[in-house]
Write a structure and sequence with these properties.
Chain A: Belongs to the bacterial solute-binding protein 2 family. The complex is a heterodimer of chains A (about 325) and B (about 325). Chain A is of the alpha/beta class. Chain A contains eleven helices and twelve strands. Chain B is mainly alpha-helical and about 325 residues long. Chain B is globular, with a radius of gyration of 20 Å. Chain B has helices spanning about 1-15, 20-35, 35-40, 45-70, 75-95, 100-125, 130-150, 160-165, 175-195, 195-205, 210-215, 220-245, 255-265, 275-295, 300-329, and strands spanning about 170, 175. Classes of the chains: A alpha/beta (about 325), B mainly alpha (about 325). Chains A and B meet through α1 and α3 of A and α2, α4, α12, α14 and α15 of B.
Chain lengths: ~325, ~325
Amino acid sequence: MRHIRFGAAAAATLLALSLAACGDGSGDGGTGSAGDSFDIAFIPGVANDAYYGSVACGIQAVAAKSGSTVETQAPKSFSPTDQIPILQAVIAKKPDVIIIAPTDSKALYAPLRQATSQGIKVVLVDTTLEDPSLAEAEVSSDNVEAGKVAAQKLVELLGGRSGSVLTVNLSAGVTTTDDREKGFAEGLASAPGLKYLGQQFSNNSVQTAASIVSATLAANADLTGIFSTAAFNTEGAVAALRSANAASRVTIVGFNANPPGVQQIEDGTVAAQVVLKPYDEGVAAAEQAINALTGEPVTKQISTGAVVATKDNLQTPEVQKYLYSFDCPAA
Amino acid sequence: MSARASTGRRRRALLGSATDITAILLVIVALFAILDFDAFFTTANLTNVLISASLLIVMAVGATFVLVTGGVDLSVGSVLVFSGVVAGEVMKAMGGQGWGAALVGVAVSMAAGAAWGVVNGLVVTKLRVPPLIATLGSFGAAQGLAQVITNGNDLKDIPYELVDTLGVGRVAGVPWLVVVALAVALAGGLVLAVTRYGRRTYAIGSNAEAARRAGVSVDRHLVSVYTMAGLLAGLAGIMSYAQFGSTTLSGHATDNLAVIAAVVIGGTSLFGGVGTMFGTLVGTMIPAVLANGLVIVGLNSFWRDFAVGVVLVAAVYLDQLRRRARTAR
């Protein structure tokens, strides 16, 4: 009896596994047709983030031109502890090039060294390493500039109203979001009548972001503007303002062109969202990757810019093109 | 019946409650080897699998003792981070480089972990707070303190001596991380299987009251078990710091559940009294092999969570069957 039951349990496990194994039927059957088509592996910083979805779209668009294949493998949290095992498994498959958004500027160095020592080329996208010399190229957004643009937009939206301004940031030590705050602080310094309260860290938790904003509202009755450097922070800030009944007197500039972020503009809960250009990042990364593989000259460092989306310009093509999405725009 | 039962008993003496799950691990490995032999079944790749499991193995050894007593320790991932942070600060204060700082760092990390273990043990035994709540409390407290100490910034300066040995170094081709993890598992396995300490651990998990009447100082033993779990989390802390070159403040939030899942998959009963270190080793390897293999066969690694979930429930179901069979006998 025991053995029969064991058999059943084991069968269920195997069924689950083989289901998993059948889930993706496409495999890589159609590769290796032309001489200059390549296996490109893309490892984003975290899964289920439309930002990286847009990066993948950009890579895909370039890869399609040469008939190259792109395989995306994403860690479930933005952390080297999740990303490194995935990177190592990808290295074992020996792709021609790995395009990666490193989740730590130091921890990813040794495993990426392993890749290059096996002749796999590496291109860094969006985030980078302390010592990026092993990479063929690094592509990133100019986040300081994006922060400045956010400050200008906030000043414009406030239209001369005075009061305090708070930044709700992600976690200390994340270079991209630190740069956004730096640019924002610089941009705000020249604005008259606005008192900058500095930044608070939410550690990417909606609850923490909400409690930061409620506490700041309680302490600073004149709070008039919030700059949020990441999606969860914006959601937390919106919730806190709503429950404190302060949504009408506090203007939020967010940093999220994900579908929910776009929804927030349409609802009017968020006045503006800074939109980076992940699609351009993906295109640039894939172009440099293919240049490196075909022996063409490579541009070592590329930086892409930002636009600000508001209710007024949301429907314009130049903003629409850059909203983050897993659905790639038609080529 | 009797013949089959006796071979079954012999087999169980060797692998304990881990017989079935060992078979499942071998099948999974075989499956990946068939699907993509060249990428999966290489020494380099299998070494990578062991590296990615090594931190969890070290913590799972401690958790096996805790679960065998009928307790649970949810604090391990946070204690790991906390210990790494404290060791990092001490090494920084000592100038940041050199063998002296490196060795003190290892000692401090283990001491910091053991300190949390003592706290867990005392809260469970003296304050009579259930282990689930006591260690959930220290899970939050240790993570919070680690962030207070670092102000949320990951520490990144660790002695090169430590990175080059424990972090990425190898002995005879085997990574130090793996050597340490397997040595801890071997030592833990021996202590659990053949020493009086191990027998007392089982006795408390089977029936704490009976153990107390037999003259075992249950409270003191429990404190020592939680202390060992904390100490091993501290060891994992310095291993993690050396491996990643960063204290990875946000990287270990779900380690506790991964560790408990691994130990339970390995046949240790949540109700205490049953479990082997070999089973724990197998239980830790299953998620690690799945995470690696699924990526290699070109599937999203999220399937790992799904597959581990199925294996976990299957393992506990088998445990239930075993208990029923035992009580029926």
